[in-house]
Amino acid sequence: MPKLFSGPEDRRIKRALCIVAHPDDIEFYCAGAVLLMTRHGAVVDFVLATSGDKGARDASKSRAKVARIREREQEMAADVLGVKRVAFLRHPDAELVENLELREEFVREIRTSKPDVVFTFDPNVPYRFHPDHRVVGRVALDAAWPSARDPLTFPKAGRPHETAEAWCFGGVQPTLEIDVGDVLSKKIEARLAHSSQTRSPASLMRRWRAIARVEKFHQVNLR
Ligand SMILES: [Zn+2]
Predict the structure, then answer these.
(1) C or N: which end of the chain has fewer Cβ atoms within 10 Å?
(2) 86 Cα to the center of ligand 1, angstroms
């Protein structure tokens, strides 16, 4: 069995793909690891299942308008993180369900990006976890292994690809802890790009300097 990657700076990691539910999920859970990867030249892509079209505090804007704003914010955050490709699948926010259509979409993204590492939600979480996060975690893992690997599964969704590892965040039993102190200010800058989701940038900055320095993952071998 191949040795697990030692962390985001492992030079064997050439490509990674983050599969998440909403704009700002990446900044919250794994932006430091993404920065440590792009800093050494790895290519990282993002896939968002929804555009967070219900993420507004009042009903004055249409869902389409909220989605447009949040996609733009995610693209600005990606820019800060050194990420060029952001795919929006545009499913309705808070309505994701586990089905084969979503799995095929994720398979297509995995086969396009050809990642060594897939970042996604740990689906093994206690109650009171956003249902979209649970669905994305389960479907992304099923897409990475075995669906994307097997040529007879979703043959129209691109050429097969074997992903080495999944790094799952938000769970209760992390096995990999990463100190992202070196890139913390850029991580916070990326989070602040989501200005529609930020009431007070100053207090967010203060809080994140204290709490956002360590990122935790459950590292899963998929080979
Ligand atoms: Zn989310």
Answers:
(1) N
(2) 16
